[in-house]
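hey can u check if this looks right to u? its 365 residues, i copy pasted from the old doc so theres a chance i mangled smth
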Amino acid sequence: MVLLYIFSAIALINCVYYLLFFSKFSFLKISGKNTSEKYPVSLIICAKNEAENLKKNIPLWQKQHYPNFEIILINDASVDETLVIMESFAEKDPRIQIVNVKNNEAFWANKKYALTLGIKRAKNTRLVFTDADCYPASSEWLAIMASKFSDEKQLVLGYGAYEKSPGFLNKLIRFETLMTAVQYFSYAKVGNPYMGVGRNLAYTSTLYYENNGFMSHIKIPSGDDDLFVNEAATSKNVAICIEPEAFTYSFPKKDKKKWLIQKKRHYSTAKLYKAKHRFLLVVYYSCNLLFWLLAPISLCTNFWAFGLSIIFIRIVFQYLIIGNAAKKLKEQDLIPFIPFYELFLIFTQLSIFISNSSEKNSRWK
C-alpha cells in the first residue's frame, strides 16, 4: 500500500505541473498581430554548408510582407557553395548583407562567434533569428514576430516546428519538439521564462549587449538560443508568438543516430540553466520517469483498481492539456498516442543524459 501512496504522490505532482504551468499555455487565446507600428527589423541567418537550403529559403525570406527589413546572411566557414549562393542573391537584392566568417584558432567552428559578427553587422535594433534550413509558414511570419516587440518586450519566443512525414521517428521528434515548446511557452506565461529555440527567436540588440552577448558560454557548442534566453529573459521582457502563420518549419532527421547526436548536443546545455529552472525540469522529468516505472507495478498488487484509477486520472489530465496544446501548435496527429510517445521519449532522454555525462563536444556542425 505504501507503494501506491508514493505512486499517487508522483501522479499528483504530474497533475500539478499540468494545472499550474502547462494549462497557462494550453488554454491561452491567440492574440493576433499588432499592426499599429512597423519597427525596422534585421533578419539574421547563420549558415554552415547550407547551399541547397539557402536556394529554397532565401526567396521565402525575401517575400516577407514587411516594409522595412534587412537580411543578414552569415557564412560560417562553409566548404560548399554557401557563400556563392549568398552572393548571387545579394547582387539582386540590396536588403541582403553578407558576413563571411573564417575559422580562427580561438573560436573554431563556433556558431556563437559567427552570430556575434552578424549581430554587430545589423543596422536595426530589433533582430529576428531563424536557421538556414527553416522556412516560414507564411509571408506574414516576420511581421507577426516583429509585432510582439514593444518598449518592454525585448525578447520574443516563437515555435520552430518540423515537417510531418511517415514513420515513428518523425512523430517522436515532433512530440519532443511539442513538449519542449509547451514547457518554454508555459514557463514564460507564468513569469519564469527559461529557454527558446533559434529556429524562431527574436530579441533586441540592446538586450544582447546588456547581457554581454554569448560571452558567459561562448565555448559551449550549443546554447546560442536557450542559454542566452536563460540569462537575459525576465518575467517582464518576454513575449510569446504562437500564431500558426508565424511558425517556422524544417525537416527533421531521418536517421535515429543523427537525431540522438543532435539531442545530446542540445541537452548538454541544460546543466547551465539557472538553479530554479534546473529544479523544475528535473522534478518534472523525474516524476514522469517514476510514474511509468511504477504504473505496471501498481497493477500487480491487490489494490490494482486503485492503481488503475490513478493512471486513468493522470492520463486524462495529460490528454486535456497536452492535447489542447498540440491542437494550438498544429500537431493534432500526435494526440491519439500521447502517453505512448511520452513513454518512449522519457527513456530515450534517459539514455542521452547518461551518455552526456561521459562525452564532450566542441562544434556545432
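Residues 227 and 272 are 7 Å apart (CA to CA).
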